[in-house]
């Protein structure tokens, strides 16, 4: 996939779509797959226009919205979906003030956009035109054809990033994954910890995550762990570790059948299922016994479902 910028914008006509695409969920994938199909049909290159940070963070500075996907995660998914080009913009106050006409003119003149595919509920520009028909008329004045994409519905639920955030905050990983069309992931670097897991024969890798990333509800999860180019079963704990008087949230994973020093190594967790709430145990021995039960449950889960 070609990453476009002011210094890298080959003169090729393009069919574009615009959006933040947080999570790149089933609805987004439906739109992006249509973009690829339509671009090929009209002999144009596909272009996804997105933003490095959430527009909501600029428009509502007091909001503390957490993201389903970081910029690097989105770029990886866009590439996997076969998109030919991506333009990742920095959403700042200057961009926020541009009208729909100014923004579309920039895309036409600077990045050769000749057609635009819009999601069913999408608006762009500070003037926020009222209807899809308004965008069609705007496009006609600029020589840009504007097409609409219908909403994607999974069961009786219209797929949205906000609905997926709700599921994750409830710990409902399976429904979140269903709407994402993929496993929810957490990627971070391994940092040193208290070594208590090692004392009870359940060593853990403590992950440092991007500050903007949404961390699901506290609890114990079955996960797949991607580390050093291989995949392993894993047992993830998100929480404050009440048994050892912890006082801040940590994200730590016990990797089954793995040994090695991975401090400073990037690790990706693919969340599969939430097993239970985090609990306070009376002793480390009691905690160790529960972790053994959790380990057996994860092994059984993988045998039966994954």
Which terms would index this structure?
single chain, 306 residues, alpha/beta, Rossmann fold, Elongation Factor Tu (Ef-tu), domain 3, 2 domains, six-stranded parallel sheet, 14 strands, 33% helix, 27% strand
Sketch the major β-sheet: 6 strands, parallel
- Output the radius of gyration: 22 Å
Average pLDDT for all residues? 92
**What count of helical segments does DSSP give?**
10
Q: Termini, distance in Å?
A: 31 Å
The CATH superfamily name of the largest domain is HUPs
Side-by-side strand order of the widest sheet = 1-4-3-2-5-6
In percent, how much strand structure appears in the residues? 25-35%
**CATH fold naming of the largest domain:** Rossmann fold
So what's the CATH class of the largest domain?
Answer: Alpha Beta
Helix proportion? 25-40%
One letter per element, helices H and strands E, the order comes to: EEHEHHEHHEHEEEHHEHEEEEEH
Taken together, the total number of domains comes to 2
CATH architecture of the largest domain: 3-Layer(aba) Sandwich
Describe what is shown at a glance.
By secondary structure, the chain is an alpha/beta fold. The mean pLDDT is 92. The chain has helices at 26-41, 55-59, 71-80, 93-96, 100-111, 132-142, 161-170, 173-180, 196-199, 284-305, and strands at residues 2-4, 14-18, 45-51, 85-89, 113-118, 145-148, 153-154, 157-158, 184-191, 205-208, 219-227, 230-239, 250-255, 266-276.
Polypeptide structure, described:
It is built from 10 helices and 14 strands. The mean pLDDT is 92. The longest helix is centred in the last third of the chain and has 22 residues, at 284-305. It has 2 domains: 11-157, Rossmann fold (3-Layer(aba) Sandwich), CATH 3.40.50.620; 184-305, Riboflavin kinase-like (Elongation Factor Tu (Ef-tu), domain 3). A hairpin with a 2-residue loop joins strand 7 and strand 8. The radius of gyration is 22 Å and the shape is elongated. It has helices spanning 26-41, 55-59, 71-80, 93-96, 100-111, 132-142, 161-170, 173-180, 196-199, 284-305, and strands at residues 2-4, 14-18, 45-51, 85-89, 113-118, 145-148, 153-154, 157-158, 184-191, 205-208, 219-227, 230-239, 250-255, 266-276. Helix content is 33%, strand content 27%. It has 306 residues and is α/β, with parallel strands linked by helices. The two termini are 31 Å apart. Helix 7 (161-170) packs antiparallel against helix 8. The chain has a 6-stranded parallel sheet with strand order 1-4-3-2-5-6, with helices on both faces.
